[in-house]
Design brief:
single chain; alpha/beta; Rossmann fold; 3 domains; globular; binds S-adenosylmethionine; binds zinc ion
Length: about 300
């Protein structure tokens, strides 16, 4: 972590400031050490440049595995394409020009593809994830001086209220045990006039097919499930290309044009322990309950944005 992160983080329990004991540091920042709460005296490890506010990856070991297996599959700087940049704009409604010099929180960063988009737009980014995906994301982006990664749980975040100009969480909150409660942790972290955008799975009929299979796949060993996906995705993809006959098979696998992306997405549907679906009306009600204004449903179900008022 960079020393400057100390200005942003607080003790997740008592919200007091933290002191840092450095054991090892280099040009990438503080590599090993401890963060010590100045009030309740709790301490948290800094390991491999990342503050660890959790002791394990709890129910997201599938994501720890997934983001190491597919560290760069969706990263624009590695693919040479702008798919993640375009998708980010579509599902956040953020104008990249507005992010310049802003403090941005990426909640559930995975391999860091959207963190990269926001850094490229000139933002200072803090990216958190409960899983060891943060280590993959650090390998991707840790050399940059405009980003810090933190391993933390959305239900127990180490930030003060009124801290960030922008908060986004894309494809994350529906993978927690309580999506609404997870969302409710976030608006308070915004500064006045700050903006938040989230994207959640929608209640598409499409998901019914995978939900039935998920009863079995979520009980499987992660590596075995990944091997099964590797074995079946390409043959099923070939079938999906057959006119009419192939159509129903599209409900079972990702039909993304890139082979690695298809495998990643398909594993991502079948492996998470929690995976809830949400409608626009439901999510807009949450935004209203959180006191947000200028709430908009975006052109991609279920992506919603809102603003904290003065
Ligand atoms: C499908 S991935 C999305 C990653 C990234 N936002 C993207 O779209 O590329 C969902 C991520 O949410 C993280 N996640 C799930 N529950 C979480 C929690 N309680 N706190 C923080 N992150 C969580 C997972 O570890 C995983 O990396
Ligand atoms: Zn404390």
């Amino acid at each position: 972590m960079k020393k400057s992160l100390l200005k942003v983080i607080v003790c997740p329990d008592c919200k007091s400031s933290m002191k840092c004991k450095i054991k090892q540091s280099d040009k990438l920042g503080i590599k090993e050490g401890f963060l010590l709460c100045s009030s309740c005296k709790k301490s948290y490890k800094i390991k491999n440049y990342i503050p660890r506010f959790v002791v394990s990856d709890l129910y997201v070991d599938n994501f720890s595995f997934e983001w190491h297996a597919h560290k760069s599959t969706q990263l624009d700087s590695k693919t040479g394409r702008d798919e993640s940049t375009k998708h980010f704009q579509r599902i956040t409604g953020f104008n990249l020009k507005d992010l310049k010099n802003k403090l941005v929180l990426d909640v559930g960063c995975g391999s860091g593809r959207y963190s990269e988009v926001t850094c490229n737009a000139g933002a200072r980014v803090v990216a958190i994830d409960l899983s060891f995906a943060v280590d993959a994301a650090f390998q991707n982006l840790g050399k940059r001086n405009d980003i810090d990664f933190i391993q933390a749980d959305v239900f127990h975040l180490p930030f003060k209220e009124n801290t960030f100009d922008y908060v986004f969480s894309l494809g994350v909150l529906h993978h927690t045990p309580n999506c609404k409660e997870a969302f409710m942790q976030l608006p308070k972290l915004l500064k006045n006039t700050g903006r938040i955008s989230i994207w959640l799975y929608s209640k598409k009929i499409h998901f019914l097919a995978t939900d039935v299979l998920r009863i079995a796949t979520t009980r499987m060993d992660r590596k075995q499930l990944y091997s099964v996906c590797k074995f079946v995705v390409e043959p099923i993809y070939s079938v999906t290309r057959i006119p009419i006959i192939g159509y129903p098979f599209k409900a079972f696998i990702s039909t993304h044009e890139n082979k690695d992306w298809r495998l990643l997405d398909t594993f991502d549907w079948y492996s998470p322990k929690y995976q809830s679906k949400h409608s626009f009306d439901e999510v807009i009600d949450w935004f209203k309950e959180a006191g947000l204004h200028d709430i908009k449903r975006l052109d991609f179900p279920t992506a919603v944005t809102g603003k904290k008022s003065n």
